[in-house]
């Protein structure tokens, strides 16, 4: 078929005139295809899905009830623009209750339609062509993609086990630092499961001040902290002078599909974000914002989510250890990030995490996500669907049996 006349018109940032012609398949698409294939080849074998990073539960009933009530109120029908004060105030109460952080609801908080679009928009506020965004890898790539869209450069900071999964800020060269405008960090970290220490956050504040860099701390998993109570970057002295923290209703409140998050911190950065946002969307449905406000005011919700995933994670760590994996309980998140097997006792070898992951899904219908950005790793998510603890235990027993039958070698 002939190319449409607009084939030549696509912007370079998405591939230019070659857009849509590539044969490269992205990681998550590869996983989806392998899952479909495993189901087709082995309909008798249940898929053990540790791949997907999406909460398996619906939002709590009391939150859904507030939504049901608010949806019928005429005052909630219109454009929300940069958000209703009820949600901002609930955020301020939440940040104070959970982390002792004081925020001015009117000027230091702004909602986003999920935290993902906030990472798409924040680079618009800072990045000119040639500017650098410092980003930890492996990690959530959206701020980097949009940095490149604006002509900026992404400088990757690998998260390595030997550095305790913290970026080596002292190792960044002076010429990169001179061009760096944004530092994007993420704790509790996806996928490594590392939680931040106060010392690390203090170092980040000092680093940002010294090199005049704006910090964006991704707190999407903040309420899923196992090794210590959840913390906020903004609770560290000076943090509000250097940046913002971006939160999400998705993970801790089982509200993934509702699409709500917020940016909070320095009022001028929040304002810049709100200006970009105001030119991009017209705000999340007010009924959703009010239901989320009710969720934020209910401290039991994130506690229950955390305890459920802690329980599942504890079981998974035990199972994987018995199968030879060298893993331990992560500090937080619902992800277990563990070195991929190098091969199997039968002599099969895996050149990287992706090969190991593909083998597990193909041969044993065990779905994981490979990460090869900083060494060969597999990520197991404990968001698999299991109705109760007995179902969790059955799924764990099946996982152990299948993995042991493969006899992985490390
Ligand atoms: C580290 C991290 N940041 C941000 C997000 C985006 O979350 P949401 O857009 O649902 O708020 C995710 C979701 O997977 C994530 O894992």
TrEMBL record:
> Which CDD domains does this one have?
AAT_like
UniProt cofactor(s): pyridoxal 5'-phosphate
Which of the seven top EC classes does this enzyme belong to?
Answer: transferase
What EC number(s) does its UniProt record assign?
A: 2.6.1.83
Taxonomic superkingdom? Bacteria
Keywords on record:
Aminotransferase, Transferase
Domain Aminotransferase class I/classII large: where? 47-382
State whether keyword Transferase applies.
yes
Tell me if RNA-binding is a UniProt keyword of this record: no
User: What molecular function terms (GO) are annotated for this protein?
Assistant: L,L-diaminopimelate aminotransferase activity; pyridoxal phosphate binding
Q: Name one Pfam family in it.
A: Aminotran_1_2
Q: What is this protein called?
A: LL-diaminopimelate aminotransferase
* The species this protein was found in: Aeoliella mucimassa
Q: What gene makes this protein?
A: dapL
């Amino acid at each position: 078929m002939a190319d449409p006349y607009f084939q030549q018109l696509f912007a370079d940032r998405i591939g230019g005139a070659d857009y849509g012609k590539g044969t490269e398949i992205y990681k998550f698409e590869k996983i989806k295809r392998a899952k479909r294939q495993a189901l087709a080849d082995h309909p008798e074998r249940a898929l053990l899905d540790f791949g997907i990073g999406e909460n398996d539960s619906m939002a709590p009933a009391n939150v859904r009830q507030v939504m049901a009530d608010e949806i019928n109120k005429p005052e909630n029908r219109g454009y929300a623009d940069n958000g209703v004060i009820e949600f901002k105030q609930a955020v301020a109460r939440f940040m104070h209750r959970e982390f002792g952080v004081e925020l001015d609801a009117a000027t230091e908080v702004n909602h986003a339609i999920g935290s993902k679009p906030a990472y798409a928009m924040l680079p618009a506020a800072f990045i000119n062509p040639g500017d650098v965004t410092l980003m930890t890898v492996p990690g959530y790539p959206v701020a980097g993609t949009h940095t490149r869209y604006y002509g900026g450069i992404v400088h990757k900071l690998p998260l390595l086990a030997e550095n305790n999964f913290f970026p080596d800020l002292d190792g960044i060269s002076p010429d990169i630092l001179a061009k760096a405008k944004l530092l994007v960090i993420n704790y509790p970290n996806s996928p490594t499961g590392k939680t931040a220490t106060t010392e690390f956050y203090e170092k980040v504040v000092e680093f940002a001040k010294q090199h005049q860099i704006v910090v964006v701390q991704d707190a999407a998993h903040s309420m899923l902290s196992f090794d210590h109570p959840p913390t906020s970057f903004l609770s560290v002295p000076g943090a509000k002078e250097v940046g913002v923290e971006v939160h999400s209703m998705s993970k801790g409140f089982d509200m993934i599909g509702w699409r709500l998050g917020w940016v909070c911190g320095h009022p001028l950065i929040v304002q810049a974000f709100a200006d970009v946002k105001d030119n991009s969307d017209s705000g999340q449905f007010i009924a959703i914002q009010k239901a989320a406000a009710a969720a934020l005011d209910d401290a039991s919700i994130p506690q229950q989510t955390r305890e459920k995933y802690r329980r599942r994670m504890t079981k998974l760590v035990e199972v994987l250890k018995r199968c030879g994996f060298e893993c331990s309980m992560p500090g937080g998140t619902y992800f277990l990030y563990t070195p991929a097997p190098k091969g199997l006792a039968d002599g099969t070898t895996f050149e990287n995490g992706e090969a190991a992951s593909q083998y597990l899904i193909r041969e044993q219908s065990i779905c994981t996500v490979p990460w090869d950005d900083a060494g060969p790793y597999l990520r197991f998510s404990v968001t698999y669907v299991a109705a109760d603890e007995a179902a969790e235990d059955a799924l764990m027993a099946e996982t152990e049996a299948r993995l042991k039958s493969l006899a992985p070698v490390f």
